[in-house]
Amino acid sequence: MSSLEDRGEVGVPVATAPSSSSAGLGVGAAGAGLEAGPGGPGVQGGQEQADQEPDPDAPPKKRVRLLQEGEAGKLEERLYVVLCCTVCLDLPKASVYQTDCNVRVDLPMSSFYQCTNGHLMCAGCFIHLLADARLKEEQATCPNCRCEISKSLCCRNLAVEKAVSELPCECSFCLKLFPRSVLERHQKEECQDRVTVCKYKRIGCPWKGPFHELTVHEAECCHPTKTGNELMGILDEMDQSHRKEMQLYSGIFSLLCFEKIGFTEVQFRPYRTDDFITRLYYETPRFTVLNQTWVLKARVNDSERNPNLSCKRTLSFQLILKSKINSALECSYLLLKGPYDDVKIKPVIYHYVFSNDANETDYMPLPIIDSIECNKLLAAKNINLRLFIFQIQK
Asked: Residue 293 pairs with which residues in a beta bridge?
């Protein structure tokens, strides 16, 4: 009969065999494992098997890091849904903030406004809602909860603007993602795929291409080697466009030399016509310039029936002389933006000869840049501009 140690030696390999069913050998295997001790071969074999099998309890740091990477995209998508405008369901292009307390750059059209119930509207949609309400003679309301909105009732949400400025946005040139706060600078100055023009464009080079190809093109461009006769036609076209720009400024400078010059701040107030289908128009209170009484009127889209259905919106104005005059009054006049408004107006000089029979000018277009500027004016409670009148003496 073998000893307990012999049975333990025999029991070690038998215990590891899966087909073994002997209880005595099982006990012998357990005894062998106990005799092997902490540093014995039985414990080492168990550790090797544990290392080979996948451990369900991974290290906490790896699991947390992997979850964060997996949730990053989902979090951005959820923030996009939460922070988007309730009208256009989109985010503004950029919101720029400087960390320096002395310098802060804020793009107005990237602002976010909120109604009294907290629903968000981007600046473009907010202004458009107010302009539509003015055209339809209705109270502007939030498209989500239908509460009243106005510039006095709604306020900007700076926290949302800062959060949106950190959300990623795709560059339209290189298709890489950048925070919205730096996207505009990247597209204008840093992107190697941004569209640029040749430095010899001024002498007729029509090349346009990605920035990283600019150096190669300029080294091979043939326009610097053209003769003077070939460049004369291009320079003539440039002189013509430059001459048109200078004509306006020279005209203004010549008007400033006149003896009788008058200007005043005018305020256009909204009114409705008495027609069955009322139309919006603007009119100023009577004002006095050059010892004469005047009135300004303005209309939207030349009194189009439903200007609220049009995406392109314009304003035209008319100058009316209310005083009686003894002789013809020849004047030049122009409208500029008021001192406290941010509307962009290109100065245009108009000319008219007033008399008692012809005391109203034709409706002339207000030289605003685009429909967005027109919506800004329509969304305001009143339109504040500055009128200059120059009397031409023969």
From this structure: 288
**Contact predicate 300/135, CB 8 Å:** yes
For residue 316, the Cα-to-chain-centroid distance in whole angstroms is 28
Structure tokens at 372: 């967005």
Q: Name the β-bridge partners of 335.
A: 387
pLDDT digits (tens, 9 = 90+) for 202-216: 888 889 999 999 999
The 10s digit of each residue's pLDDT in 79-113 is 888 888 999 888 876 443 333 333 333 334 578 99
In angstroms, the CA 352 to CA 268 distance is 21
Written as six digits, the tokens of 82 are 């939460």
Task: Specify whether the CB–CB gap between 278 and 356 falls below 8 A.
Answer: no
Is residue 383 classed as helix, strand or coil in its secondary structure?
strand
Residue 140 to residue 87: CA distance in whole angstroms: 13
Locus of tokens 């890091």:
65
Structure tokens, 354: 């007033």
- pTM for the model: 0.64
Give 142-171 pLDDT, tens digit per residue.
Answer: 999 999 999 999 999 999 988 888 888 889
